[in-house]
Every structure is written in structure tokens, then in C-alpha cells.
UniProtKB/TrEMBL annotation:
<keyword id="KW-0472">Membrane</keyword>
<dbReference type="InterPro" id="IPR036215">
    <property type="entry name" value="TM0957-like_sf"/>
</dbReference>
<keyword id="KW-0812">Transmembrane</keyword>
<feature type="transmembrane region" description="Helical">
    <location>
        <begin position="7"/>
        <end position="27"/>
    </location>
</feature>
<protein>
    <recommendedName>
        <fullName>Periplasmic lipoprotein</fullName>
    </recommendedName>
</protein>
<dbReference type="Pfam" id="PF10054">
    <property type="entry name" value="DUF2291"/>
</dbReference>
<dbReference type="InterPro" id="IPR014582">
    <property type="entry name" value="UCP033535_lipo"/>
</dbReference>
<keyword id="KW-1133">Transmembrane helix</keyword>
């Protein structure tokens, strides 16, 4: 047998042997996961509990955070002089939209009581109503976004963030507004803490419409 034919025979033999070895012991095995061990996708969004979140936020951050609210009389005065300056100094914005918010606290005398709002004067000799407290159904994101205490980037998705707003609004409607409507009579002095949502400066600045989450008489 010549050298070239001998090398060809060796090559064929090695290839055949390798093929046989791989058929008996492959390079890798495909092992399916048992059903109970299959990788699970994150369920953070599914397990988010807005009720529990708002319960904790309300007691540990929102109520204690009321010390950071701007004084209502001061804010109204700045707005009357230069509402652009007021927004720059005291406003809160979320995202790139034109809507902005104020976190506000103060004391006022009840001047008027309507079905969905209570008008307050902030000074004894004030004839105009610079501020009203909302007492109807609460919509929007005034309290969620107005305090500046919550960051949308801290939530897994927008659905969770929106559910927080719904829970806060519902809690105000259930726990705050009934008591407010009960004590609000012309001449009564009220202390309030709440937030204002400004979507149209032509209508939302005069008067300021406050969504209150703290109300005290006297």
C-alpha cells in the first residue's frame, strides 16, 4: 500500500471512530426543565399592592411630610405678583408635560359652602376667595405628584404608579372629605394641608383648588 493510500485509510478510520464515539457519548445533552423548576418571569408588577403601599406612605411619609408645604398666604401673594416666579420657586412637575403642582398648607375662614367645594378667605378683611377646598369626587394626581415625595422611576411600571394615585384619591374621599363637609360652615376657621394641580393657569390659579388630606377645625 502506498503512503498516500495508507494515510487515506487512517483518516477514514479515525473519522469513523469519532462518529461512533459521539453517537455513544454526545458533546452535550438537552435536559428539559421539570415543570416546577422552569425559570419564572419577574412577578413584581403582579404582586404590587397599592393599598398596602398607600397605607405605609400615608402614615410614614405623607402626613409627616406636611411640614414641607408652602404657606398658602405666601403662595397666593407670590402668584398675584408673578405666577412664573411662584412656579419656579414652589412648583413640582412630573415628566415633560405642562401640568405642575403646589404642596400647600394654611388656615382660612369658610366663606362659602357649595356642593363640591368650600371657599376660604386667608385674611380677616379679605372679600375675594383666593382658595377653595375640593369636596367632590377626586380625580387627577394632585396629592401623588404635588408633594414631590414620590418618584415615577421608583415604580416598575406606569400602572403601579397610577394605582397609587387612585388609592390616595379614594382614601381622601372616604376618610377626609366627609369630616370636612360636616364641620365646614360659614365663619368656621379651618387648618388644611393639601395639593393643587395646575393644568390651565387662566383658570386654576384664581382661585387655587386644593385637594386636602389634612383638615382641622379652629
Amino acid at each position: 500500500m502506498t503512503g498516500s493510500r495508507r494515510r487515506w485509510a487512517w483518516g477514514v478510520g479515525i473519522a469513523a471512530g469519532t462518529a461512533g464515539l459521539l453517537s455513544w457519548m454526545p458533546l452535550f445533552h438537552v435536559v428539559p426543565f421539570p415543570r416546577g423548576d422552569a425559570p419564572q418571569q419577574s412577578s413584581a408588577a403582579a404582586t404590587f399592592d397599592p393599598v398596602a403601599f398607600v397605607d405605609e406612605f400615608w402614615t410614614t411619609r405623607l402626613i409627616p411630610g406636611s411640614d414641607g408645604a408652602v404657606d398658602a398666604l405666601e403662595l397666593v401673594s407670590i402668584i398675584q405678583q408673578d405666577h412664573h416666579s411662584a412656579r419656579k420657586t414652589h412648583g413640582h412637575s412630573v415628566g415633560l408635560g405642562s401640568t405642575y403642582y403646589y404642596f400647600i398648607a394654611g388656615t382660612g375662614n369658610v366663606v362659602s359652602v357649595d356642593k363640591n367645594s368650600i371657599g376660604l378667605s386667608l385674611q380677616e378683611d379679605q372679600t375675594q376667595i383666593p382658595l377653595v377646598l375640593e369636596t367632590g369626587n377626586i380625580f387627577g394626581n394632585a396629592v401623588r405628584d404635588g408633594t414631590g415625595l414620590l418618584d415615577v422611576n421608583g415604580f416598575a411600571n406606569s400602572q403601579d404608579f397610577n394605582s397609587v394615585s387612585s388609592q390616595i384619591n379614594g382614601r381622601i374621599e372616604t376618610n377626609v372629605l366627609p369630616g370636612l363637609r360636616k364641620i365646614a360652615k360659614p365663619g368656621v376657621k379651618l387648618r388644611f394641608v393639601g395639593c393643587v394641580e395646575i393644568t390651565d393657569e387662566d383658570t386654576d390659579l384664581k382661585p387655587l383648588r386644593v385637594v386636602p388630606f389634612i383638615i382641622e377645625a379652629g
